[in-house]
Design brief:
It contains 10 helices and 14 strands. The chain is α/β, with parallel strands linked by helices. The structure holds NADP nicotinamide-adenine-dinucleotide phosphate (NAP).
């Protein structure tokens, strides 16, 4: 990379925005040149505007940067969005209309017919939808809901090898998925809450688009029935999911294990910096995977699978673990941006910085 791409972060002070700051520190292709958030934060140095919840310190070069308003005049080649969904729809459109590529975590544009809903290992060809967007030089690409990401990464090899007719999934979702300050301590300490607004609907709809086929008329969704039950549990990071599947062609647990291990990763030859060495990790020890022990595999980008066994109601069942704020949010968006660079969709905008 001769010259790094200049990245802006919308919603830079939020939980996902902070993960972007952490992940982009030292990134070989991208450097942060703009941080934006609400009017509450605009005009303040980042270290004062943010309630930093990361494990380490705020990267030194970022702490003193001034947070700007989220208006489309930022000095950057493209923006990552970790905006609150209440404002993301409109603000992201304004940036796209002004010529900025937008890589969003928010739900607002995910199901738009011409917006790629992207997991690079799962549906890299869906980026062709960008050519059907009418924003001029700008465009919007989204990454899925954090629980959907784990589920779909595990389903892709099974869909390819055997076909999948129906899915039943029960999630155990970490607190960080609710942002900051998120769920009240009185609601979650020593407790489980069996409702996460809007989550089950997203898990039932987004996988059909992600696993769908790109056709001249748009994405033809995969014909699969999905029933999701989503629960919030007192875990800091990492969504665990118990999945049962009905297959179109018979397969044993060993066949499924081989399908996960033999999956031909479409990123294999692209050398993307954030792509993990192992896309899927399969555990044979029946105690695994667990959030605390396996969350950070592949820098938080590996999806873990275990307990593959026959299902008494459908065909097979297994457990999936996904890092919700890395693979399921900021890391997923950074990998999306890397894929877009390698496919030629992300380009340098005119340089106007005077420093
Ligand atoms: P969050 O912690 O509540 O952060 C929201 C961010 O949006 C803050 O930076 C906030 O800035 C900014 N914001 C709010 N109103 C604004 C406005 N009017 N103009 C400009 N900026 C505004 O939320 P989060 O958990 O990071 O989630 C961010 C997005 O990612 C959401 O759409 C969420 O659904 C999605 N997502 C989250 C996760 C996860 O695991 N947390 C996973 C996948 C997707 P101020 O600090 O100035 O208020």
């Amino acid at each position: 990379m001769k010259r790094k791409f200049r990245a802006g972060i919308l919603g830079a002070t939020g939980a996902v925005g902070q993960k972007f700051v952490e992940l982009l520190e030292g990134h070989p292709w991208f450097e942060i040149t703009a941080l934006a958030a609400s009017e509450r934060s605009a005009g303040k140095p980042y270290r004062e505007a943010v309630n930093w919840i990361g494990a380490g310190e705020i990267p030194a070069g970022i702490a003193a940067m001034t947070v700007e308003s989220a208006t489309p005049d930022l000095e950057c080649d493209f923006v990552f969005s970790g905006l609150d969904a209440a404002v993301a729809g409109d603000l992201e459109e304004r940036f796209a209309r002004a010529g900025y590529p937008v890589l969003s975590n928010a739900r607002n544009h995910r199901m738009d017919p011409v917006t790629p809903l992207l997991i690079p290992e799962v549906n890299p060809d869906h980026t062709a939808l960008i050519e059907r967007q009418a924003w001029g030089d700008g465009f919007i690409v989204t990454n899925p809901n954090c629980s959907t990401v784990g589920l779909v990464c595990a389903l892709r090899p099974l869909v390819d090898a055997f076909g999948v007719e129906a899915v039943q999934v029960t999630t155990f979702q970490a607190l960080s998925g609710a942002g900051y300050p998120g769920v009240s301590a009185l609601d979650i300490v020593g407790n489980v809450t069996p409702y996460i607004g809007g989550e089950e609907e997203k898990m039932a709809s987004e996988p059909r688009k992600l696993l769908g086929a790109l056709a001249p008329e748009g994405i033809v969704p995969l014909d699969v029935a999905i029933s999701a039950q989503c629960n919030r549990v007192p875990v800091l990071e990492g969504h665990l999911e118990c999945v049962s599947v009905k297959l179109r062609r018979p397969a044993s647990p060993e066949d499924a294990r081989r399908a996960f291990l033999d999956f031909r990763n479409p990123l294999a030859d692209r050398s993307l910096p954030t792509a993990p060495e192992r896309f899927l990790e399969v555990f044979d020890d029946p105690r695994f995977p667990q959030p605390r022990r396996h969350l950070d595999l592949g820098g938080g980008m590996t999806v873990s699978i275990g307990r593959i066994r026959p299902c008494e109601v459908l065909d097979l069942k297994f457990v999936v673990l996904v890092h919700n704020t890395i693979r399921g949010a900021a890391g997923g968006a950074v990998l999306n941006a890397e894929l877009l660079v390698s496919q030629g969709y992300l380009k340098h905008r005119k340089q106007t910085l005077t420093v």
